[in-house]
Amino acid sequence: MNIILLGPPGAGKGTQASKLVSDRGMVQLSTGDMLRAAVKAGSPVGLKAKAVMDAGELVSDDIVSGIIGEALDALPIDTGVIFDGYPRTEAQALSLDGLLADRHRKLDHVIELEVDEDALVERITGRFTCAKCGAGYHDTFLTPKVDGVCDSCGSTEFKRRPDDNEETVRTRMAEYRGKTAPILPIYEARGLVSRVDGMASMEAVSAAINAILGT
Ligand code: AP5
Protein backbone atom coordinates (compact mmCIF):
# COMPACT_ATOMS: atom_id res chain seq x y z
CA MET A 1 0.00 0.00 0.00
CA ASN A 2 1.28 3.48 -0.89
CA ILE A 3 -0.29 6.46 0.85
CA ILE A 4 0.21 10.21 1.08
CA LEU A 5 -0.31 12.06 4.38
CA LEU A 6 -1.18 15.64 3.57
CA GLY A 7 -1.69 18.55 5.93
CA PRO A 8 -0.17 21.86 7.03
CA PRO A 9 2.88 22.08 9.31
CA GLY A 10 2.11 20.54 12.70
CA ALA A 11 -1.00 18.71 11.46
CA GLY A 12 0.40 15.45 12.82
CA LYS A 13 1.79 13.85 9.64
CA GLY A 14 5.02 12.71 11.30
CA THR A 15 3.21 11.54 14.44
CA GLN A 16 0.78 9.40 12.45
CA ALA A 17 3.42 8.14 10.02
CA SER A 18 5.50 6.84 12.97
CA LYS A 19 2.45 5.03 14.28
CA LEU A 20 1.84 3.39 10.89
CA VAL A 21 5.49 2.33 10.78
CA SER A 22 5.26 0.60 14.16
CA ASP A 23 1.73 -0.82 13.71
CA ARG A 24 1.86 -1.88 10.06
CA GLY A 25 5.54 -2.19 9.16
CA MET A 26 5.23 0.49 6.49
CA VAL A 27 8.18 2.73 5.58
CA GLN A 28 7.93 6.49 6.19
CA LEU A 29 9.50 8.66 3.50
CA SER A 30 9.61 12.15 5.01
CA THR A 31 11.24 14.68 2.71
CA GLY A 32 11.61 17.00 5.73
CA ASP A 33 13.58 14.33 7.65
CA MET A 34 15.67 13.48 4.58
CA LEU A 35 16.50 17.15 3.95
CA ARG A 36 17.40 17.70 7.63
CA ALA A 37 19.72 14.66 7.42
CA ALA A 38 21.34 16.17 4.30
CA VAL A 39 21.80 19.52 6.08
CA LYS A 40 23.38 17.75 9.07
CA ALA A 41 25.70 15.77 6.79
CA GLY A 42 26.69 18.94 4.91
CA SER A 43 26.00 17.21 1.57
CA PRO A 44 25.52 19.28 -1.63
CA VAL A 45 21.71 18.88 -1.28
CA GLY A 46 21.92 19.96 2.36
CA LEU A 47 23.97 23.03 1.52
CA LYS A 48 21.38 24.11 -1.04
CA ALA A 49 18.41 23.34 1.23
CA LYS A 50 19.47 24.86 4.56
CA ALA A 51 18.66 28.55 4.02
CA VAL A 52 15.40 27.72 2.21
CA MET A 53 14.24 25.47 5.08
CA ASP A 54 15.27 27.97 7.75
CA ALA A 55 13.08 30.56 5.99
CA GLY A 56 10.12 28.14 5.85
CA GLU A 57 10.04 28.16 2.05
CA LEU A 58 9.97 25.15 -0.26
CA VAL A 59 13.10 23.41 -1.52
CA SER A 60 13.20 22.93 -5.31
CA ASP A 61 10.97 20.29 -6.87
CA ASP A 62 13.90 18.59 -8.62
CA ILE A 63 15.81 18.09 -5.39
CA VAL A 64 12.94 16.58 -3.41
CA SER A 65 11.68 14.38 -6.25
CA GLY A 66 15.27 13.19 -6.74
CA ILE A 67 15.63 12.11 -3.12
CA ILE A 68 12.23 10.39 -3.16
CA GLY A 69 13.21 8.44 -6.30
CA GLU A 70 16.46 7.30 -4.67
CA ALA A 71 14.63 6.28 -1.48
CA LEU A 72 12.07 4.24 -3.46
CA ASP A 73 14.86 2.48 -5.34
CA ALA A 74 16.28 1.28 -2.03
CA LEU A 75 13.00 -0.44 -1.03
CA PRO A 76 11.67 -3.87 -1.98
CA ILE A 77 8.64 -3.49 -4.28
CA ASP A 78 6.22 -4.98 -1.73
CA THR A 79 7.09 -2.50 1.04
CA GLY A 80 4.21 -0.19 1.95
CA VAL A 81 5.21 3.48 1.77
CA ILE A 82 3.91 6.55 3.59
CA PHE A 83 4.77 9.79 1.80
CA ASP A 84 5.05 12.37 4.59
CA GLY A 85 5.49 15.95 3.39
CA TYR A 86 5.69 14.96 -0.29
CA PRO A 87 4.32 15.92 -2.78
CA ARG A 88 3.96 19.60 -1.89
CA THR A 89 3.46 21.20 -5.32
CA GLU A 90 1.69 20.28 -8.54
CA ALA A 91 5.07 19.58 -10.18
CA GLN A 92 5.94 17.18 -7.36
CA ALA A 93 2.55 15.45 -7.66
CA LEU A 94 3.22 14.87 -11.38
CA SER A 95 6.74 13.64 -10.63
CA LEU A 96 5.37 11.20 -8.07
CA ASP A 97 3.04 9.73 -10.68
CA GLY A 98 6.07 8.99 -12.87
CA LEU A 99 8.22 7.70 -10.00
CA LEU A 100 5.49 5.26 -8.91
CA ALA A 101 4.64 4.08 -12.44
CA ASP A 102 8.32 3.46 -13.24
CA ARG A 103 8.54 1.23 -10.15
CA HIS A 104 5.23 -0.61 -10.74
CA ARG A 105 3.66 0.97 -7.67
CA LYS A 106 0.28 2.64 -7.38
CA LEU A 107 -1.14 5.21 -5.02
CA ASP A 108 -3.88 3.81 -2.77
CA HIS A 109 -4.91 6.69 -0.49
CA VAL A 110 -4.35 10.41 0.06
CA ILE A 111 -5.28 11.29 3.64
CA GLU A 112 -5.69 14.94 4.50
CA LEU A 113 -5.36 15.91 8.17
CA GLU A 114 -7.70 18.85 8.69
CA VAL A 115 -6.63 21.23 11.43
CA ASP A 116 -7.39 24.60 12.89
CA GLU A 117 -4.46 26.85 11.91
CA ASP A 118 -4.46 28.68 15.24
CA ALA A 119 -3.66 25.45 17.06
CA LEU A 120 -0.71 24.69 14.80
CA VAL A 121 1.54 27.41 16.11
CA GLU A 122 1.11 26.03 19.65
CA ARG A 123 1.76 22.48 18.44
CA ILE A 124 4.89 23.42 16.53
CA THR A 125 6.50 25.81 18.97
CA GLY A 126 6.03 23.20 21.76
CA ARG A 127 7.54 20.32 19.78
CA PHE A 128 10.89 18.72 20.66
CA THR A 129 12.63 15.43 19.92
CA CYS A 130 15.15 13.14 21.57
CA ALA A 131 18.58 14.08 20.25
CA LYS A 132 19.66 10.43 20.33
CA CYS A 133 16.74 8.34 18.96
CA GLY A 134 14.48 11.02 17.43
CA ALA A 135 11.37 10.17 19.50
CA GLY A 136 8.91 13.09 19.30
CA TYR A 137 7.47 14.98 22.28
CA HIS A 138 5.50 18.13 23.07
CA ASP A 139 5.70 20.54 26.01
CA THR A 140 1.95 20.14 26.64
CA PHE A 141 0.52 17.31 24.55
CA LEU A 142 3.16 14.58 24.84
CA THR A 143 5.67 14.94 27.67
CA PRO A 144 8.22 12.26 28.62
CA LYS A 145 7.00 10.02 31.49
CA VAL A 146 10.01 11.13 33.56
CA ASP A 147 10.78 14.81 33.09
CA GLY A 148 13.96 15.27 31.01
CA VAL A 149 14.39 11.56 30.16
CA CYS A 150 13.47 10.01 26.79
CA ASP A 151 10.85 7.24 27.20
CA SER A 152 12.31 5.28 24.29
CA CYS A 153 16.09 5.31 24.89
CA GLY A 154 16.74 7.01 28.27
CA SER A 155 18.74 9.87 26.77
CA THR A 156 18.61 13.23 28.55
CA GLU A 157 19.49 15.27 25.43
CA PHE A 158 16.65 16.87 23.45
CA LYS A 159 16.54 19.26 20.51
CA ARG A 160 14.18 21.66 18.73
CA ARG A 161 14.02 22.39 14.99
CA PRO A 162 15.41 25.78 13.89
CA ASP A 163 12.29 26.34 11.73
CA ASP A 164 9.89 25.73 14.64
CA ASN A 165 9.44 29.39 15.56
CA GLU A 166 6.25 31.39 15.08
CA GLU A 167 7.46 33.58 12.20
CA THR A 168 8.73 30.64 10.13
CA VAL A 169 5.63 28.60 10.92
CA ARG A 170 3.47 31.38 9.44
CA THR A 171 5.54 31.24 6.21
CA ARG A 172 5.27 27.43 6.14
CA MET A 173 1.48 27.70 6.50
CA ALA A 174 1.30 30.21 3.66
CA GLU A 175 3.38 27.85 1.48
CA TYR A 176 0.94 25.06 2.32
CA ARG A 177 -2.12 27.16 1.49
CA GLY A 178 -0.65 28.56 -1.72
CA LYS A 179 1.22 25.58 -3.19
CA THR A 180 0.26 22.32 -1.47
CA ALA A 181 -3.50 22.51 -0.80
CA PRO A 182 -4.13 23.17 -4.55
CA ILE A 183 -2.86 19.65 -5.41
CA LEU A 184 -5.79 18.02 -3.57
CA PRO A 185 -8.17 18.32 -6.57
CA ILE A 186 -5.74 16.20 -8.63
CA TYR A 187 -6.25 13.32 -6.22
CA GLU A 188 -9.94 14.09 -5.61
CA ALA A 189 -10.55 13.60 -9.33
CA ARG A 190 -9.10 10.09 -8.94
CA GLY A 191 -11.29 9.32 -5.89
CA LEU A 192 -8.26 8.87 -3.60
CA VAL A 193 -8.82 11.57 -0.97
CA SER A 194 -10.11 10.93 2.57
CA ARG A 195 -10.26 13.56 5.28
CA VAL A 196 -9.55 13.10 8.97
CA ASP A 197 -10.14 15.51 11.86
CA GLY A 198 -6.56 16.31 12.86
CA MET A 199 -7.77 18.25 15.91
CA ALA A 200 -8.88 15.03 17.61
CA SER A 201 -6.57 13.18 20.03
CA MET A 202 -3.58 11.37 18.53
CA GLU A 203 -5.30 8.03 19.27
CA ALA A 204 -8.56 9.12 17.59
CA VAL A 205 -6.67 10.35 14.50
CA SER A 206 -4.83 7.05 14.32
CA ALA A 207 -8.10 5.08 14.60
CA ALA A 208 -9.65 7.17 11.81
CA ILE A 209 -6.65 6.52 9.54
CA ASN A 210 -6.78 2.80 10.27
CA ALA A 211 -10.49 2.77 9.40
CA ILE A 212 -9.64 4.29 6.00
CA LEU A 213 -6.77 1.90 5.30
CA GLY A 214 -8.68 -1.20 6.44
CA THR A 215 -6.98 -4.36 7.70
P1 AP5 B 1 8.62 19.03 7.17
O1 AP5 B 1 9.59 18.42 8.05
O2 AP5 B 1 7.82 18.16 6.25
O3 AP5 B 1 7.68 19.97 8.05
P2 AP5 B 1 6.13 20.33 7.97
O4 AP5 B 1 5.34 19.92 6.79
O5 AP5 B 1 6.12 21.79 8.25
O6 AP5 B 1 5.50 19.42 8.99
P3 AP5 B 1 5.97 19.19 10.43
O7 AP5 B 1 7.01 18.12 10.51
O8 AP5 B 1 6.31 20.50 11.07
O9 AP5 B 1 4.59 18.72 11.09
P4 AP5 B 1 3.85 17.34 11.16
O10 AP5 B 1 2.55 17.43 10.40
O11 AP5 B 1 4.74 16.17 10.83
O12 AP5 B 1 3.48 17.37 12.71
P5 AP5 B 1 3.97 16.45 13.92
O13 AP5 B 1 3.44 15.07 13.75
O14 AP5 B 1 5.44 16.60 14.19
O15 AP5 B 1 9.34 20.13 6.23
C1 AP5 B 1 10.25 21.06 6.77
C2 AP5 B 1 10.81 21.93 5.64
O16 AP5 B 1 11.52 21.08 4.70
C3 AP5 B 1 9.77 22.66 4.76
O17 AP5 B 1 9.39 23.90 5.34
C4 AP5 B 1 10.55 22.83 3.44
O18 AP5 B 1 11.48 23.88 3.52
C5 AP5 B 1 11.32 21.51 3.34
N1 AP5 B 1 10.58 20.48 2.62
C6 AP5 B 1 10.14 19.27 3.13
N2 AP5 B 1 9.50 18.56 2.20
C7 AP5 B 1 9.51 19.32 1.06
C8 AP5 B 1 8.96 19.13 -0.25
N3 AP5 B 1 8.26 18.02 -0.58
N4 AP5 B 1 9.15 20.13 -1.16
C9 AP5 B 1 9.84 21.26 -0.86
N5 AP5 B 1 10.38 21.50 0.37
C10 AP5 B 1 10.20 20.53 1.32
O19 AP5 B 1 3.15 17.15 15.11
C11 AP5 B 1 3.52 18.43 15.59
C12 AP5 B 1 3.40 18.46 17.12
O20 AP5 B 1 2.03 18.32 17.50
C13 AP5 B 1 4.16 17.31 17.81
O21 AP5 B 1 4.81 17.82 18.97
C14 AP5 B 1 3.08 16.31 18.19
O22 AP5 B 1 3.39 15.65 19.42
C15 AP5 B 1 1.84 17.18 18.33
N6 AP5 B 1 0.64 16.51 17.85
C16 AP5 B 1 0.52 15.74 16.73
N7 AP5 B 1 -0.73 15.29 16.60
C17 AP5 B 1 -1.43 15.81 17.66
C18 AP5 B 1 -2.78 15.71 18.08
N8 AP5 B 1 -3.70 14.98 17.40
N9 AP5 B 1 -3.15 16.37 19.22
C19 AP5 B 1 -2.24 17.10 19.92
N10 AP5 B 1 -0.93 17.22 19.57
C20 AP5 B 1 -0.55 16.59 18.44
Give a quick rundown of the structure.
By secondary structure, the protein is α/β, with parallel strands linked by helices.
What is the strand and helix layout of this fold?
Elements: E1 2-6, H1 13-24, E2 27-30, H2 31-41, H3 44-55, H4 61-73, E3 81-84, H5 90-102, E4 109-114, H6 117-125, E5 127-130, E6 136-138, E7 158-159, H7 166-180, H8 184-188, E8 193-197, H9 202-213
Parallel strand pairs: 1-3, 1-4, 2-3, 4-8
Antiparallel strand pairs: 5-6, 5-7
Bound molecules: BIS(adenosine)-5'-pentaphosphate.
BIS(adenosine)-5'-pentaphosphate binds next to helix 1, helix 2, helix 3, helix 6 and strand 6.
Quick tags:
binds BIS(adenosine)-5'-pentaphosphate; 215 residues; 47% helix; alpha/beta; 15% strand; 9 helices; single chain; 8 strands; 5-stranded parallel β-sheet
Task: Describe this protein's structure.
- With 215 residues, the protein is an alpha/beta fold.
- 47% of the residues lie in helices and 15% in strands.
- It is built from nine helices and eight strands.
- It has helices at residues 13-24, 31-41, 44-55, 61-73, 90-102, 117-125, 166-180, 184-188, 202-213, and strands at residues 2-6, 27-30, 81-84, 109-114, 127-130, 136-138, 158-159, 193-197.
- The strands form two sheets. A five-stranded parallel sheet has the order 2-3-1-4-8.
- α4 runs parallel beside α5 (90-102) and α6 (117-125) crosses α7.
- The chain is globular.
- The N and C termini lie close together (11 Å).
- The model has no long low-confidence stretch (mean pLDDT 96).
- Bound molecules: BIS(adenosine)-5'-pentaphosphate.
- BIS(adenosine)-5'-pentaphosphate binds at residues 7, 9-15, 31-32, 35, 52-53, 56-59, 64, 85-86, 88, 92, 123-124, 127, 136, 138, 141-142, 163, 172, 201-202, 205.
- BIS(adenosine)-5'-pentaphosphate is lined by residues 7, 9-15, 31-32, 35, 52-53, 56-59, 64, 85-86, 88, 92, 123-124, 127, 136, 138, 141-142, 163, 172, 201-202, 205.
